[in-house]
Amino acid sequence: MVQRLDARKVAMQVIEVAAGIIAHEGRYLIARRKAGSHLGGLWEFPGGKRETGETLEECLHRELWEELNVRISAPTPFQVVRHEYPEKVVELHFFCCRIATGVAIAVDCAELRWVYAHEMASFEFPPADQSIIEALQQGTV
Question: How far is residue 45's CA from residue 19's CA, in Å, rounded to a whole number?
């Protein structure tokens, strides 16, 4: 049997994203995406797209500064999740980290919340984040 490749998916560029699993006193920081953006209104672990020439760690530091106005501790790699949406392919690099300086404010997102892992089921997240939520709920982070 000959398997045909979907030419559209073959041509799709993989978008690399760095995301922070930011913990403080047993809770995790989640951000709500702005309406009108890709996956607008859904909750996520804050972060963003890697720019040309920067490492994933540099990306995470930059994105959390731009989005939340915080500086973080050295991020520790946790898990990589590749997810195919109909319009794009994303490769999410999740890092565990803590806020080193600053207080998180919603600079470039609609809203922020500090939540316990068991509360995450009450929030709507993108499909790509589900394995991370399960890991948090099972205490494997």
Answer: 6
This prediction has a pTM of: 0.87
> At 64, which amino acid appears?
L
DSSP state of 130: H
Residue 10's pLDDT is 53
pLDDT of residue 140: 73
Residue 38 burial (CB count, 10 A): 12
3-state helix, strand, coil in the chain (%, to 5): 25, 35, 40
Contacts of 4 (CB under 8 A, 6+ apart): none
* Residue 133: count of CB within 10 angstroms of its CB: 18
Q: Find out if CATH 3.90.79.10 is the number for domain 25-138.
A: yes
CB atoms within 10 A of CB 114: 15
